[in-house]
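Pasting as-is:
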Amino acid sequence: MFLGEYQHTLDAKGRVSLPRRFRDATGAHLVVSKGFERCIYVYPAEGYREFLETLMAGSDFNRETRAVRRFFTAGAIEADVDAAGRVALTPVLREHAGLSKDVVVAGVGDHIEIWDAKAWEAYEDSHATTIEDAAEELARQGIL
């Protein structure tokens, strides 16, 4: 399980350090993909396989299924954590998330998200007043 948020920096080669806790939970082999809200998703390899099985369950005859499948797979990479605990992010992934030097590495349960620090701050600010409404709606739907 991945919990917490950590401030890190992206190095000149496009690598970011993962917190020790996260590295211990992921192992050395990861899958990194585009994420919603212009962030990057990082999964342990097995976790991504499970996620991909869900994506593949939809019909190829459904336009939305194909679009979501492409979003999460076309730019995805398999990556190894190096000896210094860093993972290399491709230019495509960095551009997708608008990453600058300062990033936030956030644990969100079954995966990790990497955000540009300013984008993370803006996201947090914009959702501070609506999170209770979202939780109430999910409770009404029986999800929470």
